[in-house]
Amino acid sequence: MEGTRPARIRQPRLADMVASVLRERIVSGELADGELIGPQDDLLAEFGVSKPSMREALRILESEGLITVLRGNKGGAIVHVPRTETAAQAIDLVLRTQQSAPDDIAVALVRLEPLCAGLCAERPDRESGVVPALEAAQRKAEESVDDPLGFVRAAREFHAQLVFCCGNAAMAVAVGALERLWTTAEQEWAGGAAGRGDFPGLDQRSDGVRAHRRLIKLIAAGDAAGAERAARRHLTAAQCHVLEH
């Protein structure tokens, strides 16, 4: 329409542009975990921005958990490569904001973790890339069966390895984040149950060990469908103790 001004195109702020460049260096691996960014004078010289813009760029990255800003005259920052726990913390905050119950995490894991078990069974390198990790976690669970709290820690490690070894990075991160949240809930329950004296007995813990053993055999045999079914049955049985309290 004549006389109408064209819409203004928003230009990125300098701080956002600097943060974007540094963020890409971190996620691409160009900057390693624990590496120093800076000092501040070097950053200012490289990017040609003002001190306020650089400080804002570093604050953006710090709010994302990618760096810790160093205080003092020289400034700079320490790099933190994103990890599964970072995703877990973010998901936890969102779920708490929405007042989500542990049941939601449990249902999600019952649907998703068996898929990871199936993916483990489909890996052509499962004998070297999956089974040894599961066997190591299984040995810890078997050795800890007489120690309720130790058994919970070992059993959770088995489930974490099941997800981590699935061979799909997106599933490993997404389901791994849920695993971490469920582990926190289960360990809190275990501490309370042990104190009350109503922790599941040795027979039930032994059932869990046997379920893990069956799952390892199915994965080693390449039976993806069987591994999914076994994982789903085991998760449903194991979660009920936590959800009932």
TrEMBL record:
Molecular function terms from GO: DNA binding; DNA-binding transcription factor activity
Keyword tags: DNA-binding, Transcription, Transcription regulation
Superkingdom as given in the UniProt entry: Bacteria
Protein name: FadR family transcriptional regulator
Pfam families: FCD, GntR
CDD domains (alphabetical): WHTH_GntR
Every HTH gntR-type domain range: 12-82
Organism: Actinomadura darangshiensis
